[in-house]
Write a structure and sequence with these properties.
single chain, alpha+beta, four-stranded antiparallel β-sheet
């Protein structure tokens, strides 16, 4: 088993990526709101905020969060499907600020059958 984890930099691509992953037939997907150290440090830099900010000033600022999406799959063929589905939506993951995808081995897991059963019913 493998955990496939995607840190998605562009929040507006979250739903299309989730749809693409779901279309592969994975059993369950977890979504977390997250932020990296670079984005936190950038947000702390208050020198770019005007002395008397308006609502428009805040709306111009880019969102400093991203999404972390992960699932557990049975084999490497599933990993390959998820990578392909992800890159169809967001493009090559090697492009800057596109996201980071990594895979971890899962040696033991309990409670995955519920998600697998729901996926079969779709």
């Amino acid at each position: 088993m493998y955990m496939v984890m995607l840190i998605l930099h562009k929040m507006d691509e979250c739903t299309p990526v989730l749809d693409a992953w779901e279309e592969t037939g994975v059993g369950g997907i977890t979504i977390l709101e997250s932020s990296g150290l670079g984005r936190v440090r950038k947000a702390r830099d208050r020198s770019s905020i005007p002395l008397m900010p308006s609502l428009a000033d805040f709306l111009k600022r880019p969102e400093e969060r991203h999404r972390t999406i992960f699932t557990v799959v049975e084999g490497e063929e599933w990993v390959d499907r998820l990578i392909e589905a992800t890159e169809k939506v967001i493009g090559n993951l090697e492009n800057p600020d596109n996201g980071v995808l990594f895979v971890l081995p899962v040696y033991r897991a309990k409670g995955l059958k519920g998600g697998q059963e729901r996926a079969k019913k779709r």
